[in-house]
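I am still learning, so can you show me any protein sequence you like together with the matching structure tokens, please?
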Amino acid sequence: MKTSQLLIPTLRDDPGEAETVSHRLMLRAGMIRKVAAGIYTYLPLGLRVIRKIEQIVREEMNRAGAQELLMPIASPAELWKETARWDYYGKELLRFKDRHERDFCLGPTHEEVITDLFRREVRSYRQLPLNLYQIQTKFRDEIRPRFGLMRGREFIMKDAYSFDIDDAGAKTSYQKMYDAYTRIFTRCGLTFRAVEADTGLIGGDVSHEFMVLAETGEATVAYSDQGSYAANLERAEVLPPSEVDTSPLQPMTPIATPRHRTVDDVTTFLKIPPRRLVKTLLYQAGTDTIAVLIRGDHEVNEVKLARLLQVTEVALADPETVQRVTGCPPGFAGPVGLRQVRILADYAIKGMRNIVIGANKADTHFQDANLDRDFQVEQFADLRNAQSGDPAPRGTGVLTLAKGIEVGQVFLLGTKYSRKMTATILDDQGKERLAIMGCYGIGVGRTAAAAIEQNHDEKGIIWPYPIAPVHVHLLTVSQSDRTTDTASRLYADLMAAGFDVLWDDRADRAGVKFNDADLIGAPFQLIVGDKGLADGIVEMKVRRTGAKSRIVPSELVAHLKTLALEMSSSAG
């Protein structure tokens, strides 16, 4: 490929719309262009990255015994109504009517469509295990699409679905996909962790997310510094405290806290640490209002709370609801005398004594309040976010928090969909049994974006070798016949040796070409010019390290093959 013949509209300055490193660099490197909020066109270089990731995915899915098919992006409402997700999924499901006024949606995922196919075409246990996958465009009408390919509305996804006769078979299929994902992201040259995850709108019993570790990640991963435990923050378990406060109970007394509403304000005013204060937060769960008690230095994990209450989501109550339930404005709510709502508490509250709480009266808190004597709690549970230094569950060590980007997720669904859609098979006794299912997704565009978030510097992208749009960026820094002839021979030799090469044959200044090369991020840059050729050499630069070497043209292909093999080996 020659730059003069390729659409690579690089930008010198950062686009104003860019919010993350990957978004900014993919726009600047001419890899994507925005069509509408959360919807992008992949330009030639960007599409090359996507296709390389897809190829790795296909090879590993096929290796794991999965079969590729392709389902439609549009699906009829009838299928979604069978599983009740037509309403349950919410506004992210883009619904529309065809010319006959029949309801359809653009598929954000394909559990219903694949289960319908299975129940029509598969009848016997002899046809199992079965794993079907596709690489296809999805659409989720995100309320706030952002971060470029990281959270778009339209995106490319690999989704797979396994069917088994029993739980043991389903667990085997799940492990095969877990192992395949490990190989996929290793081959993509990424540093990642598989972490326990919440099943969310997909549902099921067991799930792991594959998180690319990057400081710019929007998710938080909690992992043991000594054991194998790892989970996303939504799922990370927090153990009940091992120590219990045995201090003598003090009389509860009201204390004026004028205009002090926040934890920081109240604890500073009272000269106590935040861990001595207990927040009372009111949540709306459907039509119910719930009070949640949480230590002042902890944060409520709303996913855990929703799971405990068996609802899809919870939200903080509005000020009017707080006033109606507690009789006071937000910031002064407390559990003493609270009668209209259920009171739940995080495990940490159970062992506390002589705490500070809101008094359900404006500008007032209670000091030295105590559980059971002054207020009651209906249920204790793990309701908070894990923090660095918390004891790690299921083993030794403590938890460490890191930022990550979700690029894939695997789910053990059980019979969630097969039961609702009556997807049955005949076992070896001729008895009908519900298929046991799993589903497995990879965000192809997100993987490309995550690779950039993890691999960049102030000059631009540094692509891992296996998914780089091109392997070698050939730069001619003069337009002489000698330079052009040498570059032409090297271009042909490198292509014949299996390298993807981009030849910047433009008549632009050398500085422009060097800047674009660093921005685009090919693993190797090859500089050909009259000055070097006068000494019989060309210059090569490794993008990741910046290391430069002077090489005789006849030895270049062999040298690059050695370096490429090392890079590919390190990526799995």
Remarks:
- The mean pLDDT is 94.
- The longest helix spans residues 167-187.
- The domain at 13-237+400-453 is CATH 3.30.930.10 (BirA Bifunctional Protein; domain 2).
